[in-house]
Design goal:
Length: 127
């Protein structure tokens, strides 16, 4: 059985004037993986959230899509997946500017936090 993509939620009248949103996401220090054994989920992680360095970005409504700042390819990939989930014809009409983000693959969960920040910003500005 496959999950069906969610329908885009209707914007509340009070939200229609939102043209920009800023999103901050902390980093996650990874301390390691645990193996649970047995059937089902085999691994889990241990870590702690820290404010700095974190991901900070701004999403602004626009006529087309543009990604500025570090990790542009990852931002575009997340935006594309987000648009497919909501059955949009193409990339969402906005500018996503990553103001700060640590490097990927350094044990801070940057890819996950960046993805969540992009999706949260898009949902607030575009939907």
């Amino acid at each position: 059985m496959r999950a069906r993509p969610a329908e885009p939620p209707q914007k509340h009248a009070a939200c229609q004037s939102i043209g920009e949103v800023r999103v901050s996401a902390p980093s996650r220090l990874h301390f390691g993986l645990l193996s649970f054994g047995g059937s089902g989920r085999q691994f889990g992680g241990v870590g702690a959230m820290i404010r700095q360095p974190g991901v900070r970005l701004r999403v602004t409504a626009a006529a087309g899509f543009e990604s500025l700042g570090p990790h542009g390819d990852r931002v575009r990939q997340v935006a594309r997946s987000w648009a497919e989930h909501y059955r949009l014809a193409g990339l969402p009409p906005c500018v996503i500017e990553v103001n700060s983000a640590p490097p990927l693959h350094v044990g801070l969960g940057v890819g996950t936090q960046l993805g969540l920040a992009v999706a949260a910003g898009l949902s607030r500005v575009v939907l």
